[in-house]
């Protein structure tokens, strides 16, 4: 019976362990599956975000490239339009010159025809037994007409020359105007860059002051004292006071700690440091008298007594 009971106990224990192990396996399986699903979702979301970021970046670069190309095309079109205008003007000038040349040649031929007609008429009149006076009169008339014609052509040539000179002056004026416009554009660009530089300098100084103020915990007095020390304002004030009292007999207080020797009668290694600290009380007092500003608490306090021990904490 004991063996049978022990067998029942062993079976029950084995069944318990089997059921517990099965539940643990199922729980671990569910946990691992949930963990894998979460990691998969995170990875998919991350890859999707990176893909969208890359797509946005590519679109921005394409847009920038398109804008640059449009600007280049517009510039090329403007340059082509300018060249076409110049070519059209040259063609018109050549056409006018050709028309004037044809007119001049026609006038010369007409003059020759009229001269030959005059000679023919004169000979005909002579042949028809006109009197000498009539022939001379006709000849004089023809000569007068000829002179008048020459004067008219000369006047037309002078007018044409003046028109060409006016056109040349107009072209020179346009070139000078274009050059002035280019100079003005260059000056405007230089002024613009100078203004941008000043703005950048102001922004940098503002960032420096904000950083310095944050470093001292927002204490404006500490920042002011730091900047005064860094810029050498205390030394400058001392120099100005020294120049102001030069040649006078001012009341001068000598700050000392009982001589330049240590307690044993010799010169200690901290003598130079002590000398520096000896100069601070009168310097702070002078600054307080001149500006009304007190030194920061971490450097020392001023008092109305003349003792050395109460000058510095």
Summarize the structure.
This protein is mainly α. Helices cover 81% and strands 0% of the residues. It has a domain of 85 residues.
Fold blueprint:
Elements: H1 2-127, H2 132-215, H3 220-230, H4 233-244, H5 271-291
Helix pairs in contact: 1-2
Biased composition (Basic and acidic residues): 10-23
Protein name: Flotillin-like
Keywords: Cell membrane, Membrane
Give a written overview of the molecule.
Residues 10-23 have a biased composition (Basic and acidic residues). The structure is a single chain. By secondary structure, the chain is an all-alpha fold. It has a domain at 220-259 and 269-313. The chain is 81% helix and 0% strand. The chain contains 5 helices and no strands. The chain has helices at 2-127, 132-215, 220-230, 233-244, 271-291. Helix 1 (2-127) runs antiparallel to helix 2. The radius of gyration is 54 Å and the shape is elongated.
